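Here is one chain, start to finish.
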Amino acid sequence: MAKKTENRVLVTLTCSECKKPNYRVSKNTKNTADKLVLNKYCPECRKTTEHKETKTK
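Its structure:
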């Protein structure tokens, strides 16, 4: 059985163009200390845009 560690946290990915939160992903804070920036599909913009990490409410 795998051990559960406190290294992973939930973050929200928000579209940089329309500012809508679209995705919730978990991130390993030990390996990636910087904010996540990924190219993902935004259903509001209907295109692939840059999504940046924001805090989960």
